[in-house]
Amino acid sequence: MTAEFNADTHMRLPSGKVVPLADPAYTKRTDLWVDAFDGTYRLFLPLAQLVELERKSGYIDKDGNQRAGSVFQVYDRVSKGRYELDGKAVGFASEGAATLNDCRETVRLALIGGGHAVVAGERVKISSRRALELVETYLSDAPLEEAWTLAFLILNAAICGREQEPHEVGHHSRTPVFPLSAEDSYPEALATEDSDADEAADG
Predict the structure, then answer these.
(1) Cα separation values, 136 from 25, 61, 107, 131, 142, Å
(2) I need a labelling partner for 79 at 20 to 30 A (CA). Which of 18, 24, 50, 85 fits?
């Protein structure tokens, strides 16, 4: 008799094969919460948004065919010129290699993938339309350093991961875990499983 599929402990691959998930107690998270724009935003690049980022960073080959880029190549470009100084991430523009598209699309897609924010003390959901509005409103006329820094933080978390906070242990990155504040107490700071993070990005 086949055991019932449990999405908390296993995942189903496109081939139909079911494989166990890593123990969330020992897994780095690939999302992050950042104070930006008009609140605190969850930035996350799940698979759908990573695929879309690769599509957006693609190129036309010599035969005129559209080819997808590589998220690792995007990360390589965004990482060039980035250093840590006195515990703070800084960028030296003269060494930079990131394109405007690299930075803006990374931030936009991470807002969609993150899907949540805390604005004026209220928890809100972020739609693809709102993600575009945030990028247009807060990044279009801002110093390029701001989009560059956000893009680096997002991709570094997506590729290298980050250590979990104590209140995040036991939850995979696909589950939003709201940051603790003076008003929050565990477990009210935890969000439930959110399918929005797996929603495919808008073109």
Answers:
(1) 38, 30, 11, 9, 10
(2) 24
DSSP string, the chain: -PPPP-TTTEEE-TTS-EEEPPPGGG--B--EEEEETTEEEEE---HHHHHHHHHHT-EE-TTS-EE---HHHHHHHHHTTEEEETTEEEE-GGG----HHHHHHHHHHHHHHH-EEEETTEEEE--HHHHHHHHHHHTSSS-HHHHHHHHHHHHHHHHH-BPPPGGGTT--TTS-BPPP-TT--TTTTBPPP-GGGGSPPP-
Residue 43 maps to a domain? yes
Q: Is the pTM of this model over 0.70?
A: yes
Condensed to tens digits (0 to 9), the pLDDT of residues 55-76 reads 998 877 788 777 778 999 999 9
Domain of 145 in residue numbering reads as: 34-57+66-160
- State pLDDT tens for residues 119-167: 999 999 999 999 999 999 999 999 999 999 999 999 999 999 998 888 8
- Count of domains observed in the chain: 1
Q: Is residue 111 part of a domain?
A: yes
